[in-house]
Amino acid sequence: MDTLREDAADPAVDAVIGAIHSIGRLIRQGVTGSDLDPGSFWMLKTLAKQGPLRVTELAGHANLDTSTVSRHVTQLERAGFVGRTPDPDDRRAQLVELSDGGRDRLHSAMAQRRALLTAGLRDWPAEEVTEFARLLDRFVSDIDKTTSGENE
């Protein structure tokens, strides 16, 4: 099996980079009336999946510095999308949790994205959609391993 060399400019890799950027742009354009920037969407989605987290834990999930995430959480709190509660394990710390409003907003944002992608895949045979999803999942997993240092 041929594998890609890290030091070689590969047209297929460049095409993947272009596709990733295009997908992000098209989703942002296709989600009308959204007041959620990609960072807010990601944080709400992470809190929905992980449950309440400390800001430091949320920053670790995002691979961002704590001060950046803290500012973002403050904006989400002002919008009513998250709340803070004392950490039962350390009363000096606080946990950030998704509010009912944040859960509703995330549900709406997911529905918009799902509708957009469903429309884009409408003419694809079901088996191709399944294979595409499998390959994307593998791709994300491999990138995650690379960025977390598991492949070293």
From TrEMBL:
HTH marR-type domain sequence ranges: 1-141
Annotated InterPro entries: ArsR-like_HTH (IPR011991), HTH_MarR-typ (IPR000835), MarR/SlyA-like (IPR039422), Tscrpt_reg_MarR-type_CS (IPR023187), WH-like_DNA-bd_sf (IPR036388), WH_DNA-bd_sf (IPR036390)
Protein's name in the database: HTH marR-type domain-containing protein
Superkingdom of this protein's organism: Bacteria
Organism of origin: Microlunatus ginsengisoli
Keywords for the protein's UniProt record, in alphabetical order: DNA-binding, Transcription, Transcription regulation
SUPFAM superfamilies reported in the protein's UniProt record: Winged helix' DNA-binding domain (SSF46785)
